[in-house]
Design brief:
The complex is a heterodimer of chains A (300) and B (481). By secondary structure, chain A is mostly helical. In chain A, 74% of the residues lie in helices and 0% in strands. Mean pLDDT of chain A is 83; it is low at 295-300. The chains are: A mainly alpha (300), B mainly alpha (481). Chain A: It is found in: Cell membrane.
């Protein structure tokens, strides 16, 4: 039964990908891409990586889809979606060759994962029991700090490069009742994901993405009048606080323990949860701003 | 390792400060750059006196955690970055960015330049200090994205188009690089740099290294994957061009050098490929520079040629455990960074005085050559590799090693590339050396600007580094292999 499901899933992913590539309409292509994201998320569940599945569903399919739809609306001229047959054939051949190479490489590797045992051995000292959170916020927290810096740069780009604002078309009468349900729900789910990240799949990135989804619902319902500079300022400050607080925490740990991002003994969980809580808000604010475009007028 | 922590963290914190308070952005930028310079000098001094340093972040030893490694090569790269950073900050301080079209445009440029530039600086520092391939991938993401921003800052149609091409090429390079890192993890189960020697032994590992180098080739704009680069480097504002051309491409070149050092003698095919592509890039870039009509485009194509030269040096270097030829590549990177940054800053000033950057229009009878032209000429001397510049020492080390091996083909290619670089740079320098009947009696001189100081300072540093090259060479000699 599960094999049948897996087979259907695999066929579905390839089918939707083809649909996304060859759709004649830009919105249809983005829609197919989003469906593909959800199917890929399902396949991550089947592969036993629920953390990746959550991230893929929330960020890969959901928010990326929203950003793509927003950009698709901005582009006025409909380009020729399909290139010449030769270039399609050539890129297809290159992709197939590349995939074959990868397949050969991966199947030739003896699958003895060396890293998970290392993590399992020291998991008790990390302060959390979810190995993914332990790696992201403790063992390899420096990677995560730099990833937050990537988000920061993306935010600066959106502020600096002139982007027009979205003026959402009126969505009908249901949008406000919809937002009334979705927004509180997103806050609850996000809080749950954040708290649960310590010992089960979840964490700041997923929680932030879900919260950002609620934020988008607010924006689309017109409830968040971001043109008011004060609210925009708060949102921006929240977005910037992620890198600032993570960086400050790194400095503080270096001062306290002598090791950059080495949490004091026995307090690791408090530090991790604190950092993750700030990151959740910052990631959500950043994603909403990425969708919405620059809110603050450039200083004179 | 306090200095290393400061180098890795301070630019990011200052970038947040500059983004949060755009009016104070220049102050954040200048303070952070100066502290960065001090920290890199202290770190180099510590390494000179006490040898290599290593810090396990969070006290988790690699391969579980990430280690910062500060050795001689890292110290040379960090100091190079800090020196160029100081000059770029001076330039951007004095003059905003070129072509301020109205007050609002200018402040947008300034407000955007500092956070992006500080993030670039932080990413470069983190990259040079990192001892972990996946961590280096993340630094490349910051570097690539902020470099795209620096390209797009002027907001002109050309620069936006160049920035988009840069983004697409950079993303493709990142994906290939990441795929290589993933395969490397699959092959040996770890991603710290100490895994590189083990990668050489397996077929999957070699494929992983190949993918990593393919990604690096895109990011370093190595011929024939340089297609995105001349437009991006020539359409950005001068201070941004200097950063992109002198520093950002060096991140990928540094990692290529680092991996070839770690891998030792086992990657002969990869080395030959690097050397061949490098030589081809050197000749192609020089040819395009000879034909360029605009000054900025000439300098950008000269970067293609110089990247080719550096890649050639990485490729032909012998096994680092027995020969010191790899030091030539490091020295060439250092000299190119200083000279090319000086050149872009000088070109910015020249274009500002002339009102255009057409090479055919450099001879103006009513304008005498100024400091910027002088700085350009000194930088050109260093890029060509005439004594006593750092470029000369680098080429000397390289050719000396090749003569010992009797590799006459490579020597001929190197000398050919050098002759071509002399030819294309003479197109500009000969026009800068004009005098006598070309200049009208009442011709004015360009005024001094802080930008001139930055360009001249960098150019003379490149010159002086040839005389003081014992210092970087001592640092490099101490690098544990």
């Amino acid at each position: 039964m599960t094999q049948l499901f897996d087979a259907l899933l695999a066929v579905g992913i390839v089918g939707v990908a083809v649909a996304a590539l060859f759709a004649n309409d830009r919105f249809a292509a983005v829609g197919a891409f989003m469906v593909m994201g959800f199917l890929v998320a399902l396949s991550w569940v089947r592969l036993g990586a629920p953390d990746v599945a959550l991230a893929e569903a929330a960020i890969g399919a959901g928010l990326t889809g929203a950003l793509l739809l927003r950009s698709a609306r901005r582009l006025r001229v409909e380009p020729k979606m399909c290139q010449s047959r030769w270039s399609v054939a050539a890129s297809g051949l290159i992709s197939i060759g590349f995939a074959g190479l990868l397949y050969a490489a991966i199947t030739s590797v003896p699958t003895v994962p060396a890293y998970p045992p290392l993590v399992a051995e020291r998991l008790g000292e990390s302060g959390v029991s979810n190995p993914v959170t332990a790696v992201l916020l403790n063992f390899r927290a420096w990677d995560t700090l730099l990833e937050i810096a990537v988000l920061f740069v993306a935010l600066v780009l959106v502020i600096v490069v002139p982007v027009s604002r979205v003026r959402p078309a009126p969505l009908g009468e249901m949008v406000v009742p919809f937002a009334k349900v979705v927004v509180p729900l997103s806050v609850l789910i996000s809080g749950h994901l954040l708290w649960q990240g310590a010992d089960a799949p979840g964490g700041a990135f997923q929680a932030g993405a879900v919260l950002a989804g609620g934020g988008l619902a607010l924006v689309l319902a017109g409830a968040m009048r971001l043109k008011k500079p004060l609210q925009g300022g708060i949102l921006r400050a929240t977005a910037l606080s992620g890198l600032a607080v993570f960086g400050a925490a790194a400095v503080a740990t270096a001062a306290l323990t002598g090791h950059l991002l080495g949490y004091p003994d026995g307090q690791a969980k408090i530090w991790i949860l604190g950092i993750e809580a700030v990151l959740t808000l910052a990631i959500a604010a950043t994603l909403v701003l990425l969708f919405h475009g620059s809110v603050r007028r450039v200083p004179k | 390792m306090t200095e290393a922590y400061v180098l890795a963290l301070l630019p990011f914190l200052a970038a947040v400060g500059a983004a949060a308070t755009p009016r104070m952005a220049a102050i954040w930028g200048l303070c952070a750059t100066l502290i960065n310079l001090g920290a890199s000098i202290l770190l180099a001094a510590r390494i000179l006196s006490g040898g290599d340093m290593r810090a396990d972040l969070g006290d988790w030893p690699a391969p579980l955690g990430i280690s910062l490694v500060a050795d001689g090569l890292a110290a040379v790269m960090l100091s190079m970055t800090a020196i160029v950073a100081t000059a770029v900050a001076l330039q951007a301080m004095s003059w905003g960015l070129v072509q301020p079209r109205g007050g609002q445009q200018r402040s947008r440029l300034q407000a955007g330049f500092w956070p992006l530039w500080l993030a670039t600086l932080g990413a470069l520092n983190a990259l040079f200090l990192s001892g972990d391939l996946f961590n280096i991938y993340v630094t490349f993401e910051i570097l690539g994205l902020s470099a795209v921003g620096l390209t797009a800052l002027t907001g002109s149609r050309n620069s936006l188009r160049a920035a988009f091409d840069y983004l697409a090429a950079g993303l493709a390079g990142s994906l290939v690089f990441l795929l290589g890192v993933a395969l490397a993890y699959a092959a040996v189960g770890r991603v710290d740099l100490a895994a590189v020697p083990a990668l050489v032994d397996t077929a999957t590992g070699r494929l992983a290294l190949g993918l990593i180098f393919a990604g690096l080739a895109v990011k370093a704009a190595l011929f024939p994957l340089h297609f995105w680069m001349p437009a991006a480097h020539s359409s950005a504002a001068p201070a941004a061009s200097a950063v992109l051309s002198a520093l950002v491409v060096k991140g990928a070149l540094y990692l290529a050098l680092r991996i070839t050092i770690e891998a030792g003698a086992g990657i002969e095919v990869l080395r030959i490929a690097l050397a061949v592509l490098g030589a081809a890039g050197m000749l192609w870039g020089s040819w395009m520079a000879l034909r360029a009509e605009r000054l900025k485009l000439l300098v950008a194509y000269s970067t293609v040629a110089q990247i080719g030269l550096i890649t050639l040096a990485i490729g032909v270097a012998d096994d680092p455990s027995t020969s010191a030829m790899w030091q030539a590549a490091a020295l060439l990177m250092l000299s190119h960074a200083l000279a090319k940054a000086a050149m872009f800053l000088a070109v910015g000033r020249i274009a500002e005085e002339l009102g255009h950057d057409r090479i055919s229009g450099l001879n103006r009878t009513d304008l005498r050559p100024g400091v910027a032209e002088f700085a350009f000429a000194i930088a050109a001397v260093s890029l060509i590799g005439l004594p006593p510049t750092a470029g000369f020492i680098g080429k000397w080390l390289l050719i000396d090693g090749l003569i010992d091996r009797g590799a006459w083909v490579w020597i001929a290619l190197l000398l050919g590339g050098t002759a071509l670089s002399a030819a294309y740079l003479s197109r500009v320098v000969s026009r800068c050396l004009r005098g006598g009947p070309h200049v009208a009696p009442g011709a004015r001189r360009p005024e001094w600007r802080t930008g001139d100081v930055a360009a001249l300072g960098l150019a003379t540093t490149a010159l002086a580094l040839g005389l003081g090259s014992a210092l970087p060479l001592t640092l490099l000699n101490g690098t544990a292999l």
